[in-house]
Design goal:
single chain; 149 residues; 60% helix; flat
Length: 149
């Protein structure tokens, strides 16, 4: 026996209404509590659980992702401006590192070591062992043994 089509449609409509209510509640909480990441949401402040949010796909909604991102942007800009205006040199350097390009960051870092090839092509080094004694010694060294001279 199959359920009546109108019953299925009513259940889907109720489900969609719940989803919208949960979304609105979460959006309000994001604004009120300034949540910045999904992991930071205090579920005790809401009428539903994290698993309910996942079940309704709230974690995948662009509106919610955008609200979280907007809070992060505001926080970063607020702190960045505060650090720049600060008299604390450590905060000013931290702010500079956030806004600087790679060249400026390298100049700020006094202990910078270029671990790259500086744009140069790295050619493989070929070592050719020609004598049998040298080959045997090399094999022993690789195997972790010692050789006698």
């Amino acid at each position: 026996m199959q359920p009546d089509k109108s019953v299925i449609m009513a259940l889907l409509e109720i489900n969609e209404e719940k989803k919208q209510l949960y979304k609105n509640e979460l959006m309000d909480a994001i604004q009120r509590y300034k949540f910045m990441r999904w992991e930071h949401i205090q579920w005790d402040a809401l009428s539903f659980s994290r698993s309910t949010a996942y079940n309704y796909g709230l974690n995948e909604m662009d509106d919610i992702k955008e609200a979280l991102l907007e809070n992060r942007k505001k926080a970063v800009n607020y702190l960045l401006n505060k650090w720049i205006k600060s008299e604390n040199a450590t905060l000013q350097i931290a702010a500079m590192r956030m806004v600087a390009d790679d060249a400026d960051r390298q100049r700020l870092n006094q202990a910078y070591i270029d671990h790259t090839s500086g744009g140069q092509k790295i050619e493989p080094i070929n070592i050719q062992v020609v004598s049998d004694d040298a080959k045997n010694n090399l094999k022993q060294l690789i195997a972790g043994g010692s050789h006698d001279d």
